[in-house]
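Customer escalation, tier 2.

The customer says the design service returned an amino acid string that "doesn't look like it belongs to this structure." They asked us to rerun it and document both sides in this ticket. The original structure tokens are below, unchanged.
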């Protein structure tokens, strides 16, 4: 894992989140890109464009933000971009060869009951970039136990496992697999191929209405340091993705970092 991207919003947790990202990047010897995406506006009734003002203010905001954390020996690069959030982030991740995007659950939400705010929800829902959701105020620690939850182990894109493999290798983590049989189960869904089997220590089987409910039933027994799920059209967050905002009452594991892999199929 060489390049990690951290989008910065205006949440009160932004400094804590960046410190976690720095500590995480240090463990991998990765470069950390701290970015902000801003929109371009033209002042009503005038010909004065303010995008250059927004760019300067955004850059100065990021500089002040980075100055508040201990960057240690991590190479931290500040960048600002103009455009629509999701489209711009996808282009940035491609151009900078980003391996992982680290997001905080609420980049600008002030509602205490919110787990994933609208902006973070959009990033998770509408992109296919491997992401790590870091709960608010979480202090960095090595990832020893990982719980990976799937409703289907069928894998056509083995490269989707790379972020998980990188984390496992870095921390010598134990990866336990939870296979959840849902009403949408198809024959062969629980056939684990060699690539996945090679990183799994134990496998648990569960029968629930959704992968999400299977995780709620089993994650406390596993007591993981990280939860790993896969981004699918109707996957782990499908129950929650009817809107971009996800409430804490709908996802109770708000102290657990969640690694969201791009689709395996």
């Amino acid at each position: 894992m060489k390049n990690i991207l951290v989008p910065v919003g205006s949440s009160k947790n932004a400094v804590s989140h960046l410190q976690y990202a720095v500590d995480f990047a240090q463990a991998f010897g990765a470069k950390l890109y701290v970015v902000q995406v801003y929109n371009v506006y033209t002042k009503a009734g005038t010909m004065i464009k303010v995008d250059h003002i927004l760019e300067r203010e955004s850059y100065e905001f990021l500089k002040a933000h980075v100055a508040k954390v201990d960057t240690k020996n991590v190479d931290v690069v500040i960048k600002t971009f103009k455009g629509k959030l999701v489209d711009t982030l996808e282009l940035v991740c491609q151009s900078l060869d980003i391996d992982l995007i680290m997001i905080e659950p609420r980049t600008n939400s002030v509602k205490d009951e919110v787990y994933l705010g609208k902006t973070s929800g959009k990033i998770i829902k509408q992109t296919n970039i491997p992401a790590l959701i870091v709960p608010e105020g979480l202090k960095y620690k090595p990832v020893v136990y990982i719980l990976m939850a799937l409703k289907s182990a069928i894998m056509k894109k083995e490269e989707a496992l790379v972020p998980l493999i990188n984390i496992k290798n870095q921390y010598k983590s134990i990866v336990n697999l939870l296979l959840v049989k849902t009403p949408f189960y198809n024959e062969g869904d629980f056939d684990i191929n060699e690539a996945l089997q090679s990183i799994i220590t134990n496998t648990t089987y569960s029968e629930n209405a959704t992968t999400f409910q299977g995780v709620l039933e089993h994650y406390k027994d596993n007591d993981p340091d990280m939860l790993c799920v896969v981004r699918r059209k109707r996957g782990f967050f499908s129950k929650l993705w009817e809107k971009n905002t996800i409430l804490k009452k709908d996802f109770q594991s708000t102290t657990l970092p969640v690694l969201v892999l791009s689709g395996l199929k």
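Tier 2 assessment: The sequence is consistent with the input. The first helix runs from residue 14 to 28. The longest strand covers residues 31-38. Sent an explanation to the customer and offered a walkthrough call.
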